[in-house]
Inverse folding.
C-alpha cells in the first residue's frame, strides 16, 4: 500500500520545481556570460558545427536542428526566434549572430522561414567560446545523456551589460538595458585595480545605457538608483530635428526612436492623432526610412510651431518612453538582484576562474611536452647507443623497455624516441628541439606565475579586456541628457506676443497677431475680417497673449481650458479651425464666452451670468483640476443659456446690461458663493422679450466709463457714477435709448481714454479705434456713430485692447 501524500505539500514541491526550472532554465540570464540557456546552446551548437565568422554561412534550419536535436528540448520556433534576435542590430547592441537574408525589421516584420535564411557566429561571439576546449568551464549531460554541453561559456565579453537581457519568470523578471562596450571595459579595468570601487566610481566610466536604436536618455537619478540597487528607471526620447522645406514651411524629422519600439506602430499612432485632430498643424506624414536608417517626416502647415507639435508628439505617442531597469541574474544557480558593481565583480571572478583553469590545462600540456623534449635530448646526446639498442631489439616493446632501463626514461619519453623520425637527427632539427625546449620552459614559468601571483593573473585579464575594447568597441549611439527635457516649458519656445482670438457662432476658432489690425478713425468701414460663410458670424473676440490660459465656457454650462498658443494661428481673413477639433463638445453645444485672465488670483471667483438673468459666484479654485473632457461650470434651467463669465472678488461690483437697453448695478457680495453644480440666483428681473447681453465688473480701477454699443453701430460712453448701486434682482435703469434706428444693445464694457476698441461686423469687417475718440454722454442717450455699416449689416461683438503699460 502506497503512503498517503499531502496535496498541499505536493503542489508546493511541484510548483517550486517548476519555478526553478523556468528561472534557471529559461528566463533569467547567468551573470557570468549574460546568456539564457537557449542562447548559450545556439552559440555552442554553431561552434561545434564550425559555423564561425570566418567560415561560410549555414542554413538557419541546420543550426536550429542541431540545437533542438542535441541540447534544447523545446520547439524549433522558439530556438529560431532566439537566433533571429541575436542577429538583429536594432535589438542587440553588439549582435552575436551574423545573419544573411530576411531577419525581420524594426517595423515588426517577421523574419523569413529558417529554411531561407543563413547564419553564422559574429566575430564577437567567437570570444564567448574561446578556450572552451581547455576545460575552462564545467560541462553537464544534455537532456538525453548522450552528449555534454557547457554550464556557462568562458566569455571574455561582459555580455550581460553590453547586450542586456529581458525575461519574465515565475514571480520575478529581469530587464537589463544594453551598454557601450568601451565604457563597460574601462569600468571593469578600474574595478580590477580597485576592488573596493563604489558605484560612483563606476559611473565615471559608465554614465548610462547605450541603446542600439540611439535616441536620447535622461533621468540620471533613476539610472543611478538602478546602478546602486538593481532597480530604477529612465526615460528614452526620440531624436527629432526640424528641417525647413521652404519659406515659412517646416518639417519635423524623426531619425532615432526608443529601444524596442515598433516603428510602424509609431507611425500609425501619429496618423491616428492627426486624423482625429488631436494634433493640429500637420499637412503630411510619411516614412522615408531605408537601409541607411530611420527617417519619419512630418510636414507642418504654414505658421505651425514645430516645438509645440514636437512636445505634443512626445506627450501623446511613444516618441518618449520609460525603461524600467531590473538587474536580476542567476548567481550560483540562484536568482539574485544585483547592482552594477556586483555584476562587474562576478564577471571578473568568472574571468579569473577561466584563466586559472586554462592556465592549468596549458601548464599540464606544456610540462608534458617539456618531459618529452627532455627525453628526445637524451636520445640525441646518446644517439649511437640508442640506435644500437633499438636494432638489437626484436620488438618495439622490447626496444621501449631497453631504452627505459638504459637511460632512466619514462614510458612516454621512451615511446617518443621510438616515434622520432630520422630527419630529427640533423643538426638543424636538433637546434629546433633545443629552441622549443627553451620556449616551453619559459611558458611553464609564465603559466606558473599566473597561478601563483594574483598580479600576473590580473595582468592577463587586463590584456584580454584591452584587446576586446580595441577590437570590438564602437562609438556611443545614445546621447545622455544631463537635464530633464520634460522640465522645459513649451511657453519658453513660444514668443508671448499679443494676439486676437476670434470665434464664429458656428465654432470656427483662430489666433491672429494683434499687429495686423491697424488703428483707424471712428466711423470707418473697417478692414476685412474672417472669411466665414453667409450663415455664420464672429461671436467671440478676445485680445490676449500667447501664454495666457483661455477658459472656454459653453452655452450648456461646461468649461474647458486651452493655452492661447494651442489655438491654431490663422491669417486675418482665414476662417480658422472648428472648435470640435480642439474640444470634445456635444451636439448643440457651442462656446458662448471665453475668458483670458493674466495671473489669475486663486482666491478669486468666477461670476456666471445667463441670458435669463441668473447669476452665480463660485471659487476659481474649484476649477483648477481641469479634465480634457471639461467640467460642469453651472447648472442651467431649460431654455436658459450661459452668456458671460467674469473673474470677481469680494470688493467687485457688477453691471448687467440687457438687449433692450436696461442695466443694473449691484454689489458682488449680494451673491452668496456656491459650488460648481449650483444653479445661481436672480441678478436682474427681465421684461418679457428682454435678455441679458453682457456683464461688466467694476473693480475700482481707472476705468470709470461704461461703454455700450448697438447692433447698428452706435456707441456711447457714460460715467459709471450715473448708474446707482441697487439690490440684486431689480429691473434696473435705462442704459441706452433703443429704437429701430440704432438697433438693440450688443454689449457693454468699462474703459478709459487710453484703451483701444476692436469691433467685428456681420460683414466680417474689423474696426480698431481708440476710446478717446468717443465723447462722454448721458445715460439715456443713443450715442454716436462708431461703425459705418452698409444696409442689413450689424455689429456682432467687440473687445478692448489693454496696452502693455496698463497690465
Amino acid at each position: 500500500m502506497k503512503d498517503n501524500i499531502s496535496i498541499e505539500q505536493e503542489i508546493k514541491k511541484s510548483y517550486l520545481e517548476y519555478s526553478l526550472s523556468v528561472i534557471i532554465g529559461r528566463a533569467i540570464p547567468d551573470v557570468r556570460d549574460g546568456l539564457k540557456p537557449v542562447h548559450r546552446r545556439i552559440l555552442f551548437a554553431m561552434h561545434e558545427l564550425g559555423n564561425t565568422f570566418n567560415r561560410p554561412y549555414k542554413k538557419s534550419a541546420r543550426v536550429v536542428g542541431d540545437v533542438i536535436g542535441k541540447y534544447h528540448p523545446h520547439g524549433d520556433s522558439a530556438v529560431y526566434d532566439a537566433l533571429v534576435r541575436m542577429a538583429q542590430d536594432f535589438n542587440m547592441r553588439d549582435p552575436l549572430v551574423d545573419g544573411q537574408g530576411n531577419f525581420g525589421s524594426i517595423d515588426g516584420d517577421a523574419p523569413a522561414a529558417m529554411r531561407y535564411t543563413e547564419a553564422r557566429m559574429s566575430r564577437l561571439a567567437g570570444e564567448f567560446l574561446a578556450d572552451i576546449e581547455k576545460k575552462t568551464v564545467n560541462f553537464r549531460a544534455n537532456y538525453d545523456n548522450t552528449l555534454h554541453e557547457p554550464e556557462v561559456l568562458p566569455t571574455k565579453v561582459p555580455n550581460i551589460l553590453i547586450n542586456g537581457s529581458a525575461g519574465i519568470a515565475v514571480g520575478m523578471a529581469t530587464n537589463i538595458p544594453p551598454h557601450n562596450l568601451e565604457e563597460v571595459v574601462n569600468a571593469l579595468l578600474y574595478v580590477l585595480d580597485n576592488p573596493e570601487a563604489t558605484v560612483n566610481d563606476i559611473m565615471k566610466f559608465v554614465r548610462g545605457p547605450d541603446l542600439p536604436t540611439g535616441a536620447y536618455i535622461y533621468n540620471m537619478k533613476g539610472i543611478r538608483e538602478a546602478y546602486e540597487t538593481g532597480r530604477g528607471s529612465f526615460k528614452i526620447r526620440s531624436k527629432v530635428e526640424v528641417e525647413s522645406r521652404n519659406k515659412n514651411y517646416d518639417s519635423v524629422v524623426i531619425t532615432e526612436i526608443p529601444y524596442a519600439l515598433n516603428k510602424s506602430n509609431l507611425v500609425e499612432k501619429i496618423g491616428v492623432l492627426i486624423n482625429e485632430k488631436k494634433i493640429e498643424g500637420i499637412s503630411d506624414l510619411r516614412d522615408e526610412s531605408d537601409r541607411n536608417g530611420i527617417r519619419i517626416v512630418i510636414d507642418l502647415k504654414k505658421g505651425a510651431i514645430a516645438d509645440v507639435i514636437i512636445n505634443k508628439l512626445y506627450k501623446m505617442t511613444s516618441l518618449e518612453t520609460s525603461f524600467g531597469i531590473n538587474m536580476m541574474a542567476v548567481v550560483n544557480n540562484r536568482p539574485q538582484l544585483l547592482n552594477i558593481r556586483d555584476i562587474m565583480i562576478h564577471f571578473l571572478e568568472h574571468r579569473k576562474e577561466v584563466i586559472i583553469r586554462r592556465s592549468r590545462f596549458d601548464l599540464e600540456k606544456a610540462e608534458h611536452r617539456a618531459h618529452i623534449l627532455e627525453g628526445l635530448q637524451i636520445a640525441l646526446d646518446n644517439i649511437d647507443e640508442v640506435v644500437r639498442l633499438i636494432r638489437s631489439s626484436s620488438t618495439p616493446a622490447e626496444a621501449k623497455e631497453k631504452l627505459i632501463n638504459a637511460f632512466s626514461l619514462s614510458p612516454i619519453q621512451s615511446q617518443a624516441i621510438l616515434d622520432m623520425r630520422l630527419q630529427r637527427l640533423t643538426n638543424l632539427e636538433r637546434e629546433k628541439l633545443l629552441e622549443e625546449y627553451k620556449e616551453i620552459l619559459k611558458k611553464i614559468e609564465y603559466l606558473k606565475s599566473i597561478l601563483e601571483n594574483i598580479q600576473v593573473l590580473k595582468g592577463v585579464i587586463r590584456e584580454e579586456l584591452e584587446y576586446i575594447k580595441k577590437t570590438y568597441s564602437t562609438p556611443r549611439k545614445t546621447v545622455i541628457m544631463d537635464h530633464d527635457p520634460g522640465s522645459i516649458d513649451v511657453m519658453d519656445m513660444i514668443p508671448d506676443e499679443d494676439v486676437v482670438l476670434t470665434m464664429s457662432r458656428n465654432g470656427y476658432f483662430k489666433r491672429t497677431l494683434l499687429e495686423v489690425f491697424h488703428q483707424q478713425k471712428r466711423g470707418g468701414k473697417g478692414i476685412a475680417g474672417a472669411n466665414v460663410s453667409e450663415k455664420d458670424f464672429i461671436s467671440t473676440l478676445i485680445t490676449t497673449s500667447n501664454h495666457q490660459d483661455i477658459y472656454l465656457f459653453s452655452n450648456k454650462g461646461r468649461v474647458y481650458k486651452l493655452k492661447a498658443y494651442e489655438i491654431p494661428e490663422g491669417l486675418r481673413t482665414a476662417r480658422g479651425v472648428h472648435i470640435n477639433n480642439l474640444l470634445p463638445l456635444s451636439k448643440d453645444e457651442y462656446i458662448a464666452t471665453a475668458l483670458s485672465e493674466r495671473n489669475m488670483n486663486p482666491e478669486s471667483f468666477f461670476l456666471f451670468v445667463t441670458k435669463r438673468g441668473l447669476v452665480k459666484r463660485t471659487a476659481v479654485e474649484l476649477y483648477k483640476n481641469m479634465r480634457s473632457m471639461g467640467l460642469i461650470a453651472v447648472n442651467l434651467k431649460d431654455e436658459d443659456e450661459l452668456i458671460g463669465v467674469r473673474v470677481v472678488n469680494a470688493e467687485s461690483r457688477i453691471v448687467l446690461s440687457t438687449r433692450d437697453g436696461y442695466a443694473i448695478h449691484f454689489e458682488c457680495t449680494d451673491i452668496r458663493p456656491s459650488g460648481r453644480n449650483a444653479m445661481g440666483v436672480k441678478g436682474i428681473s427681465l421684461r418679457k422679450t428682454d435678455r441679458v447681453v453682457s456683464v461688466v465688473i467694476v473693480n475700482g480701477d481707472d476705468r470709470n466709463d461704461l461703454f455700450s454699443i448697438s447692433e447698428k453701430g452706435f456707441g456711447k460712453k457714460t460715467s459709471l457714477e450715473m448708474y446707482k448701486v441697487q439690490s440684486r434682482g431689480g429691473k434696473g435703469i435705462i442704459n441706452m435709448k433703443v429704437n429701430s434706428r440704432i438697433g438693440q444693445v450688443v454689449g457693454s464694457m468699462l474703459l478709459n481714454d487710453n484703451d483701444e476698441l476692436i469691433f467685428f461686423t456681420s460683414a466680417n469687417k474689423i474696426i480698431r479705434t481708440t476710446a478717446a475718440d468717443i465723447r462722454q454722454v448721458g445715460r439715456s442717450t443713443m450715442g454716436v456713430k462708431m461703425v459705418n455699416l452698409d444696409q442689413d449689416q450689424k455689429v456682432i461683438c467687440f473687445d478692448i485692447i489693454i496696452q502693455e503699460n496698463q497690465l
About this structure: The chain is about 30% helix and 25% strand. Residues 340-381 form the longest helix (42 residues).
